[in-house]
Structure to design on (328 residues):
């Protein structure tokens, strides 16, 4: 059984549980003792903040103590650090090289990279280099951000100046896309080969995460997902967001190097990404299975909860099932 360590586990119960179902021994770590994913793992450990000097040494200790074979980051918070110091951890880290992570974390640099490689991306400018004539509407977007925070729509020059003057984040300006929005959940091996690409619609999102969507068998989107993944240098999971702006024309708006918020949808469609990740941890080289998924699978997400008990200031434990749901 391969032990998998999930960093910044937070609310990602879906991912931790899916790896457990695929045969992994799961280790969830987080700073916050109220992170629900901790209580769905085989082992839960509180760790120092990502910014603390002891963060990486503590993870390395856990890798040794628990025989961890694979480290999977679940947010953007520690990706750059894990990529830079992966050799210190003693396990495979499901991330590409540091320069790939750094470029993907900078949304403007990602735009420039895609343009240079002939991949569609909405026109974008730095605030100090705006052209005299802008194709409004445009978006003010943080160069580094997640969860759709600090993104503002500007319909004219006055609104643009207003948002640029008040945004708290280092930002760039991007042409707002018109057309249907899609996401493509991809998974690549450690050589950068795209093993699968599963497109889905964006029926509804909240807080930057898809909460309703449907898998679609669209050969253009499948090919686009593979092209972007292999051009960018993805290793492991990534979520590619795009708009179909015209017939045969797609523009990439984001490439996130992690399992997306809509992870349950490609899982239910048969993508088997946890099993592929475990195969990589075992040193195997799975063959690409591009296009192997079920179309028309619809996801609608909902809130759930974990009930805990414990002494004030002490460790917390999940309530037994018979207490949470007593028989009548």
């Amino acid at each position: 059984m391969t032990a998998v360590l999930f960093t910044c586990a937070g609310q990602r119960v879906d991912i931790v549980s899916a790896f457990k179902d695929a045969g992994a021994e799961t280790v969830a770590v987080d700073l916050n003792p109220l992170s629900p994913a901790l209580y769905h793992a085989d082992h839960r450990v509180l760790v120092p903040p990502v910014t603390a000097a002891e963060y990486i040494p503590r993870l390395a200790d856990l890798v040794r103590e628990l025989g961890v074979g694979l480290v999977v980051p679940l947010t953007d918070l520690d990706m750059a650090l894990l990529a830079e110091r992966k050799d210190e951890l003693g396990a495979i880290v499901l991330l590409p090289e540091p320069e790939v992570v750094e470029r993907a974390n900078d949304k403007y640099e990602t735009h420039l990279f895609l343009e240079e490689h002939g991949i569609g991306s909405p026109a974008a400018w730095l605030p100090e280099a705006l052209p005299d004539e802008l194709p409004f509407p445009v978006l003010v977007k943080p160069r580094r951000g997640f969860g759709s925070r600090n993104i503002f729509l500007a319909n004219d020059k006055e609104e643009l100046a207003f948002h640029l003057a008040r945004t708290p984040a280092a930002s760039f300006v991007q042409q707002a896309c018109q057309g249907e929005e899609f996401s493509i959940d991809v998974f690549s091996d450690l050589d950068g080969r795209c093993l699968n690409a599963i497109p889905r619609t964006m029926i509804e999102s909240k807080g930057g995460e898809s909460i309703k969507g449907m898998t679609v068998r669209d050969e253009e989107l499948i090919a686009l997902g593979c092209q972007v993944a292999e051009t960018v240098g993805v290793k492991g999971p990534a979520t590619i967001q795009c708009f179909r702006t015209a017939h045969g024309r797609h523009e990439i708006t984001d490439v996130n190097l992690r399992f997306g918020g809509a992870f349950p949808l490609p899982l239910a469609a048969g993508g088997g990404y946890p099993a592929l990740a475990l195969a990589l941890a075992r040193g195997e080289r799975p063959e690409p299975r591009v296009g192997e998924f079920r179309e028309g699978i619809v996801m609608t997400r909902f809130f759930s909860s974990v009930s805990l008990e414990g002494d004030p200031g002490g460790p917390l434990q999940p309530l037994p099932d018979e207490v949470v749901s007593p028989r009548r």
The domain at 123-175 is CATH 3.30.1490 (Dna Ligase; domain 1).
